[in-house]
Amino acid sequence: MPFRSSGGRPLADQIYTNLSRRIDAGAWKANERLPSERALAEEMGVCRVTVARAVNRLVTEGLLHRRRGSGTFVVSRAEGADGAASPAAERPITGTVALVIPYSRDGYASHIVKSVASVLSDAGYHVLFQDTHADWRREAHQLHRLRGRVDGMLIFPADPGRNQDIYAAIMAEGTPLVFLDRYCPSLASDWVVTDNYGASLAVVRRLIAEGRRRIIHVTTPEFWCTSTQDRRLGYSQALLEAGLPVRSEDFRIATPRLVSDGVRTGPEGLMRDYAMGVPDAPPLDVRDLLLPLLRGDNPMDALFAVNDWTMMACLHALFQEGIRVPDDVAVAAFADNDMVTANLPVPILAVGQPKDEIGRRAAEILIARLAGDDSAPHQIFLPATVRCAGGAWSGPFHRAGVAGTSAGPDEDREHA
């Protein structure tokens, strides 16, 4: 039956979905050759180039592989009688490792990808990249397909809680799995993440040391995200240590501004837009959140933002109100986009994550597991750094030489 463009969905995506479902349903068996791209194009009523795009995507995702001079074949997935991937000891070694990430256009994630690829490539492994577009459903679909087709997995989870049963099943099959950036606390698994709690504790302590007493925390609706949770805990702990109140009204959630097509209506839509680079920094509605806190007898004098694009939205709102940064309101944030921090017109305290080391350490742990390491889970929290970014900082942080200092312990810590 001919395919037609509908609802703005590209034809190549429709062909991809059709072929992938047919493969999953057994229309072509393992190691069986697919019909030629020309034959598929005639069957589906589309041009050969459109079919080629869909087939190339399936090759990239590991469902198909090309044999020079022979055609395109379905990849064998060693399965048990119940349809689950067979135990690792019964499967052939593929020499392939999957790296599953929620977004690839972000500078932070690209650093992780490069360091992972470098370490694994040097060790002789082929890396199969999977971009979930920050969609836990898409991630679940990709993980099901990968089971039994790769030797190990590195996962930067879209939503750790949603797919924890799948992670547990993969581990039970004997496939090594290492989490990056975010982790699943309920699983006795390997992970390498930033010490978000320690970094947040350190940067808010520094704001307090400068004399700031009403520090607002601006975050996103990703309450399920371990990095978001740990940053809020570090912020709260610093206030408690200083004898400052932890008030619910000082915890503000930046929400996506509704656009004409109605896409950005919640946290999932926001994250998918960010993951797909539409736009690079999603518009966040923070002005109305901050205005009440800039007035009255006890106005805010500092702000701690959960990430760089939240920080940029806050700065824009402060500029609109004529607030001087850092004279009236000091700003601190997790800021991993060097292009953003290098061009800030005002100074902030920027927390930088060890993105290259996260990728390197995770890849090394996975390689050790593949080599037979059966020790207790490696649960690594790497220290972040705090530096002055943007315009010259005239406060005590600049005089104390903040640039390049460690936020938290000098050494990474491993959770027992």
Can you describe what's shown?
- The protein has 416 residues and is an alpha/beta fold.
- The protein has three domains: 11-74, Winged helix-like DNA-binding domain superfamily/Winged helix DNA-binding domain (Arc Repressor Mutant, subunit A, Orthogonal Bundle), CATH 1.10.10; 88-194 and 358-380, 3-Layer(aba) Sandwich (Rossmann fold); 196-353 and 382-414, Response regulator (Rossmann fold), CATH 3.40.50.2300.
- Helix content is 37%, strand content 18%.
- The chain contains 14 helices and 18 strands.
- It has helices at 11-24, 37-44, 48-60, 107-122, 136-146, 164-172, 196-209, 226-241, 267-275, 287-290, 308-320, 338-342, 355-370, 396-399; strands spanning 64-67, 71-74, 96-101, 126-131, 152-155, 177-180, 190-194, 215-219, 251-253, 255-256, 284-285, 302-305, 330-334, 348-352, 379-382, 384-389, 405-407, 413-414.
- The strands form four sheets. It has a seven-stranded mixed β-sheet with strand order 4-3-5-6-7-15-18, with helices on both faces. Strands 9-8-12-13-14-16-17 form a seven-stranded mixed β-sheet, sandwiched between helices. A two-stranded antiparallel sheet has the order 1-2.
- Helix 12 links the parallel strand 13 (330-334) and strand 14 (348-352).
- Helix 2 crosses helix 3 (48-60) and helix 4 packs parallel to helix 13.
